[in-house]
Amino acid sequence: MTILVYELVGSDLSRPFSPHCWKTVMSLAHKGLEFERIAVPFTEVPLVENGAAKTVPVIRDGDRLVSDSFDIALYLERTYPERPSLFGGPGGEASARFVERWSQMTIHPFFGAAAMLDIHDRLAPVDQAYFRDSREKRNNGRSLESVASEREARHPEFLKKLEPLRSTLSYQPFIGGESPLFADYIVFGAFQWVRVMSPFQYLPAGDPVLDWFDRCLDLYDGIGRSAPAAA
Asked: What GO cellular component entries does it have (predicted)?
């Protein structure tokens, strides 16, 4: 049975961009499962499966609905144990929790601010209104333009914060080791988020993190490249 996965899009339905939805898409591809991707703009998320969740991704697998990218990965691991593992065991699950917290506290804050205006500009008008209102409230009333204007100044410090990842990738091709695991998809999702929505060059040429990201984009017949980079 084909699994349905609901994922966030802007005005261009062919460019899903949510970092969390990309984690789920990569997880499904990793497991080799058949799935259908359903595009959902911001203002239609409350309508998904009759309000099953406040955010996407959401998957429907037969009569099962699962939300939250990490919970979806755990569900896929337990429901399809005969397929390639997303974690490589309980230790991998625990390590992935750490990677998720690190990504959410280190990568997401910079990307969320730096790409904020680019994301807004790629949404449909009704979603732009929602996005501007919600994001400016999160930033104590600061305009999207004001927040995004700081990205050049903050960029060098952000690159320094990637040193643990950069160093890890000097030993092995993926965060998961010789092959990718869910921990890779957590971080991949963040970089895919800005690749799809912002033309800003977040990683310099020759950076081991960029080389790793390119390897991830090529996984599973290049599913990551199915959404074109922003120009």
From this structure: cytoplasm
Closest CA to 19 of 94, 85, 115: 115
How far are the Cα atoms of 50, 129, 228 from residue 15, in angstroms, in the given order?
24, 20, 7
Q: Strands, DSSP E only, in the chain? A: 3-8, 35-40, 58-61, 64-67
Per domain, the residue ranges of the chain are: 3-79, 90-222
DSSP state of 180: -
Burial class (CB in 10 A: 0-12, 13-18, 19+), 67: buried
d(CA 176, CA 66): 24
What gap in Å lies between CA 182 and CA 63, rounded to an integer? 24
CATH code, residues 3-79: 3.40.30.10
**Can you give the pLDDT of all 231 residues of the chain as single tens digits?**
899 999 999 999 999 999 999 999 999 999 999 999 999 999 999 999 999 999 999 999 999 999 999 999 999 999 999 999 999 999 999 999 999 999 999 999 999 999 999 999 999 999 999 999 999 999 999 999 999 999 999 999 999 999 999 999 999 999 999 999 999 999 999 999 999 999 999 999 999 999 999 999 999 999 999 999 999
Is the separation of the CB atoms in 181 and 93 below 8 Å? no
Contact by Cβ (8 Å): 202, 108: no
